[in-house]
Amino acid sequence: MAIYVDTAIITEAQLASQWGWVGGITTNPTLLAKSNFSPAVTLQELAQIIPGELYYQLTASDFDGMVAEGKAAFELIGQQTVLKIPATIPGFQAVAHLSPEIPCAVTAIYSPSQAVVSAEAGAKYAIAYVNRATRLLGDGFALVRDMANVLKKTNTEILAASIKSPEEAVQTLLAGAHHLTLPLDVLQAIALHELSQQTVDEFAKNGRGIVS
Ligand code: E4P
């Protein structure tokens, strides 16, 4: 399992990187637009911060444009590249074309059948938007559960995105997601519990350690 930070803000990526357990960075056009730098400069910076996978979402909507943009992203980012490609007819065609050379993640999946097509096209990841699916379809966890079932005998793994709370993150994993991408605040929240600090404070009051 990998946990990614969903951001294109350099300082957020740096903070997540310091924690030592965040495996990579996912971005999308909305997130890249919030950066102070151009998308290309931002991606090059992000690649230096966490040496794991760096996801770039294609903005072209036709097959030729997607292939050209995917290759350009790979030139820019190198071996860390994962191309996020939308679940559309040209998108799946681009995944089939690019996935033998560059890892691809099909994004904006809202049905298990789109996960099946992702696997057939050769995608490494199928991305489910959990909170959006709950808001728009009624049950994001059911979507993840169905995707996990239809992907069982394939090599395509579920990366769950659009997660707004630690509870949603845990329920998503229990539904069968392999990986999570989380915004910084949720990333921090999954590591914390108020009783942990309370317990640590109690021990600290009771005794001394070997260096203090
Ligand atoms: C995934 O690629 C997206 O960055 C993100 O998780 C979507 O979250 P949202 O539904 O909050 O926009």
Automatic annotation (TrEMBL):
It comes from the Bacteria. Its main location: cytoplasm. InterPro entries: Aldolase_TIM, TAL/FSA, Transaldolase_AS, TSA/FSA_arc/bac. It is found in: Cytoplasm. Keywords: Schiff base. PANTHER family: FRUCTOSE-6-PHOSPHATE ALDOLASE 1-RELATED, TRANSALDOLASE. This is Transaldolase family protein. It comes from Microcoleus anatoxicus PTRS2.
